[in-house]
């Protein structure tokens, strides 16, 4: 029986999945340099559906993420179901990745306000000399459990 996938196809899928995990790890650990490694130069992200801005990651959305996420000592992104569609020639692709994110906001009284949301990352990717990179990301929120804290001010 012939192999269903070539080694290159398996490698591409794994490399793109790794970008998704790298992004989640960077956001959750406040390592915004790490987050930046998933983007091609000039790569954009649209956070408007989750209450944020849209624009170029470096420096605009990187600075916004640093400021807005500082109030959340609890943040854990779970990444699943990465489905990739390749353009002819396999040098460009689009992907959909599901995410689920429990978040905890630090309240002035020392307590943590917990809530959780989930959705999808819609990515446009390109193969570069350094490997696959995201050129554009849209964060879609599909659901939320709990409420945002009343004290939350999103910059």
Brief digest:
With 155 residues, the chain is of the alpha+beta class. The protein has helices at 7-28, 32-36, 57-69, and strands spanning 39-46, 54-56, 74-75, 78-86, 92-106, 112-128, 131-145.
Q: What's the helix-strand series?
A: HHEEHEEEEE
Mean pLDDT: 95
Low-confidence stretches: none
How many domains? The number is: 1
Assign a percent range to the helix content: 25-40%
Which shape, going by the Cα principal axes? elongated
Number of strands: 7
Task: Specify the number of helices.
Answer: 3
The span between the termini is: 56 Å
Query: What structural class do the secondary elements suggest?
Result: alpha+beta
CATH class: Alpha Beta
Structure description:
This protein is an alpha+beta fold and 155 residues long. It has a single domain (7-145), classed as Nuclear Transport Factor 2, Chain: A. The chain has helices at residues 7-28, 32-36, 57-69; strands spanning 39-46, 54-56, 74-75, 78-86, 92-106, 112-128, 131-145. A hairpin with a 7-residue loop joins strand 1 and strand 2. The protein is elongated, with a radius of gyration of 17 Å. The chain starts with 6 loop residues before the first helix and ends in a 10-residue tail after the last strand. The mean pLDDT is 95.
